Amino acid sequence: LRSSKGAAIAAFDEMFFNIDRNTGNVLFTRSGSCVPIDHEMVFGQQNWLQADLQHAATPGDSLRVLRRAHAGGKLSTSDYNQVCSHMVLLAQQHESALTACQDEIRQLLANVYPKQADELASRILTFVGERAAQQWLQDRLGVIG
Q1: Residue 113 contacts by C-beta under 8 Å, 6 or more apart in sequence?
Q2: Does residue 145 register a pLDDT over 70?
Q3: Distance between terminal CA atoms of the chain?
Q4: Fewer CB in 10 Å around end: N or C, the chain?
Q5: Average pLDDT for residues 98-109, to the nearest whole number?
Q6: 8 A C-beta contact, residue 133 and residue 95
């Protein structure tokens, strides 16, 4: 998590409420570089068509690991604050990234769920849009901008 890639993965996981990030879901390609895989549990366990979407007060897996490492003394306060600040910096790009890929999300849903694509797209984009708002991750992490 201390690397720039680790902070990017943590920001992604928190934004999309990934509840299944572990070292088995990260490919380490070389020293300091990694690629997240297995996004099956992104958005937690939501009923996307029938229930109110839950934003969950609990953090995603990467943030839980980060906080546990800090609390256990494996991550200094300085390193913890640096990773959180880097996550917020990266999250500032989430809103524009969501805007840029909305059509692709709608098309993917139309291909996979043709009968429910419009409703799913609306609910998913609203959920992600709320989390992509400029201050959302900053407020969640308690980082002063």
Answers
A1: 120
A2: no
A3: 21
A4: C
A5: 92
A6: yes
